[in-house]
Amino acid sequence: MIPAIETRQLTKKYGASLAVHDISFVIPHGELFGLFGANGAGKSTLIRTLTTLLAPTSGDARVNGFDIVKQSDAVRASVGLVFSNENSFYGRLSGRANLEFFAALQNVPRPHIRARVNELLDMFTLTRYADAMFQTYSTGMRQKLNVARALLHNPPILFLDEPTKGMDVQTADDVRALLKQEIVGRQNKTVFLTTHDLYEMEQLCDRIGVLAHGEMRAFGRPRELLEQTRHKLVYEMELAQPLENLVLHLQSANGIRATRIDGARVEFEIEAEHFSEKVLWDVIYGAGGQIRKFGPREQGLRVLLRDAAQE
Known about the structure:
By secondary structure, this protein is of the alpha/beta class.
C-alpha cells in the first residue's frame, strides 16, 4: 500500500544553514504521527516542505503518493494545513461566513458548502457561536475554527503545527480527543502533528519522531521507543546544603550518573536494574550530606525525547 507520507534523505538549506538534513521516514495511512522537538529544531520547515510551501534542496518526498515537487498541485489537494499563528481569518465576518468563504476558495462544490460548514461547526462544538464575528472568538475557538477550515475539502492527510498552542487545558484536551477519536479513529485520516508538549506525544501518537538541529534523532512507535529506555530514570534530589566533590561520591554508587548540579540541587540518571536506594543514601550521608527531597522527575519515553532533543 502507498504510504501517506514518505521521505528519502530530504534536506532543506537556507544559504549555508541546514534547516532539515537527510530526513527519511515512512508514515502509513490512518495514523497519528507526532514530531517532537524544541523551538528551532526544524519542525515547521519540515511541514512547509512536505506541503509544497518550500522547495527541498535535495532528497525527495511523496505525500499521498504524489511527488512534492513534480506533483505539487495533487499534494496540496491531498492535505489540510494548520499553523498555530494563523491570522488570515476575517475579523468582521462570522465564523460561519469565514468557513463558507474559504470553502469556495478550496473548490468545495457550491451546493455542498453549507452542509459541510455546518458539519464542521458541529464537530468542533462551534455551532452556538457560528454567527458571532470572528474577532470576538477566544484563542481556543479561533484555533478550532482553523482546524475546521483545513478539513473543508475533506483531505486524507492533515498537517498540524502545534495545534493546541495557546489553548486552555480543557479546550486542548477536547481537540486532542477529536483528533484521536474522530479524525483518525472514525474517519481514518492521517494526522502529522508537531509539538514540544510531551503530554501530547504520550497521549496521542501512534508513531513518534524526535527532531533536533534539523536531524531525526529517533523514530518509531511509543512502545518501541519505551523499550529502549525501560530501565532509565531521571531523579532530582535537594540537599540541605551543597556537598563538595558530589560527582565523585555519586560515581562510587553503581548505576548512578549525575547530569546536573546546581548548588544543593542535583539531577542524575539511574539505570533502574542496578539502582539501590540504600546505596545512594549511604553515599550521601557518608559524605556528610543531608537529603531534603528526592524523587523521579522523568522516566521512559520522556527521557528519550528529552535526551534526543538536547543532543
